[in-house]
Amino acid sequence: MSHFVNMEVFSNYQKYIDNEQELRENIRIVVREIEHLAKEATIQLQVIHCDLTKIDAACSSARKQIEACAEKYQKLAALVPPGQYYRYSDHWTYITQRLIFLIALVIYLEAGFLVTRETAAEMLGLKTKHSDGFHLDIEDYLLGILLLASELSRFATNSVTMGDYERPLNISHFIGDLNTGFRLLNMKNDGLRKRFDALKYDVKKIEEVVYDVSIRGLSNSAESKEQPKVESAE
User: Fold this and answer.
1) Is residue 232 part of a domain?
2) CB neighbours of 129 closer than 8 A, spacing ≥ 6?
3) Is the full-model pTM beyond 0.70?
4) Which sequence ranges are marked TM in the entry (predicted)?
5) Is residue 234 part of a domain?
6) How far apart are CA 56 and CA 112, in angstroms?
7) Which CATH number covers residue 110?
8) N or C: which end of the chain has fewer CB within 10 A?
């Protein structure tokens, strides 16, 4: 009796499916390791909301976790076949955005400026060009930076509670510049645009904190006597 279907073809399909599942499981294992390190860094940095004297120590501890993440990304890069970054990128997109946020927070706390994509990529051991292989996607960088705004709005409020009345003004200037920068972008990505919409609320929240400090006469800064125009460049 002749066979109209070659069963060997299905055997080959099964091998492909098995190899694909194994690869994805190996990727998930490494991603979970990165997530654990990011969680540890997040826990270390939460101290900024209750004790300003421990900021430097928290940043130092978080940096160690971030450095360990760089080794894990190298393992990911070795697992992903050449030219197939976006085929598997859904596994690590969210945690990469989270790490960009943590890096940006550390850099802001240490130096007061916005980390560049190049510096963030270097800290994670990633490339910046798609053609170079495993890289830091621009949208992942931008989404991570937008996460920073929400954390700083919370930090501004808690700083006042801890008696630091100058810090909210500095945060207001920083977030205002960030807001202006994002307004220069033509955001066609729905996720990015929605996250940017949340930035507007963070700006308003920080503005209200600064204004409250100003009218109560709690700040020694002459600039804080006026309500900051965080959206003046609109």
Assistant:
1) no
2) 135
3) yes
4) 95-115
5) no
6) 13
7) 1.20.58.190
8) N
SS3 127: strand
Q: Give the number of domains in the chain.
A: 1
| pLDDT single digits (tens) 190-229 | 788 888 888 989 999 999 999 999 888 776 653 444 444 4
The answer to whether position 150 is within a domain reads: yes
Q: Are 203 and 91 in contact (CB under 8 A)?
A: no
b/e string for 24-62 if b means 16 or more Cβ within 10 A? eeebeebbebbbebbebbbebbeebeeeeeeeeebbebb
**Hey, how many other C-beta atoms are within 10 angstroms of the C-beta on 16?**
10
What is d(CA 126, CA 22) in angstroms, rounded to the nearest whole number?
A: 24
In the structure encoding, which two tokens stand for residue 9, read together?
A: 């073809």
Residue 175 near residue 206, CB atoms below 8 Å: yes
**Cβ neighbours of residue 114 under 8 Å, at least 6 residues apart?**
104, 107, 108, 145, 174, 177, 178
Residue 210 sits in which domain range? Answer: 10-216
Nearest Cα neighbor of 203 from 152, 142, 143, 166 is 152
Q: Residue 223 falls within a domain, yes or no?
A: no
Q: How many residues does the chain have?
A: 234
Nearest to 212 by CA among 227, 202, 232: 227
